[in-house]
Design brief:
This protein has one domain. It is mainly α. The protein contains 4 helices and no strands. It starts with a helix and ends with a helix. The chain is about 70% helix and about 0% strand.
Length: about 45
């Protein structure tokens, strides 16, 4: 999973939707985003 692809996906769809596509939890996906320095909208960070 590249940072650029992940960025496109999490800004186009809810984090929970993207996480389900990869078979992981939304919390795990947020941690991956943090590790890859992929910014999330403030609403996505709070959920």
């Amino acid at each position: 999973m590249s940072a650029a692809k992940l960025y496109e996906e999490v800004w186009a769809e809810p984090v929970t939707t993207v996480a389900k596509r990869y078979g992981i939890s939304d919390v795990a996906l947020r941690k991956i985003c943090r590790r890859l320095a992929v910014p999330l909208t403030s609403l996505q960070q709070l959920k």
